[in-house]
Amino acid sequence: MLSWLRTPLASIARATPRRFLSASARTCPKCGAPLPTALPACPACRFIAPVAPDTSWHQLLDQPDARNPFAVDRKALRAAFLRAQQVCHPDVWAGQPRDSQDLASAHSALLNTAFKALSDPRQRAEYILAQNGRGAEERDSLDDPEFVMSVMDSREQLEECESEEERAEIAEANRDEMHATVARIKELIGQRDWDAAKTETIKLKYLEGIDAAARGVEHH
């Protein structure tokens, strides 16, 4: 499984003796004030606890995932991320005990990881698939010769481009295919067809490689 899919919750748990607080618990156990986010952190009394290991990134950023975890509201996602960072940013916890500062830093880092993944269609799909036993592996490949040939053709066309107009046409056609692939991933995840969704997610990674080549940037 790719390293960014491994959340650091277990290591946080080992580093602190404090008890976990479920993401569904939205009242501070210390002072009784409402918690402003899914984080176990209270701005009112400076209570902070480790994030429970079973907390999903969707829960962490207040994204409902019951019907289709791929269907993320990007505007609401960003708002939840900024709201949560205001609660746990290390600067906010400066002057507090060292273990509280360490937890705040860990929460902030986890939020960054979750937000980055859920904001990106492919990374979001990879995370959801990993949560359902279909994690991405370095050895993953496609059993679709026609698609692989089309990718090779697109790369060859990019290498042989004689004008920016030609490059732009190839890039636009590829982006259209990327959008169509993302739509298929959304539908397949909604249907809980994990194997087919993984195949489309691998295809999306290939298409992202073409997009990066067209723009002259490195693809990861």
TrEMBL record:
Residues 151-181 form a coiled coil. The keyword Coiled coil applies. GO terms for molecular function: ATPase activator activity; protein-folding chaperone binding. Residues 144-213 form the Co-chaperone HscB C-terminal oligomerisation domain. Keywords: Chaperone, Coiled coil. It comes from the Eukaryota. GO terms for biological process: [2Fe-2S] cluster assembly; protein complex oligomerization. The keyword Chaperone applies. SUPFAM superfamilies: Chaperone J-domain, HSC20 (HSCB), C-terminal oligomerisation domain. One of its GO terms (cellular component) is mitochondrion. NCBIfam families: hscB. Belongs to the HscB family. This is Co-chaperone HscB C-terminal oligomerisation domain-containing protein. It comes from Exidia glandulosa HHB12029. The lineage of its organism: Eukaryota, Fungi, Dikarya, Basidiomycota, Agaricomycotina.
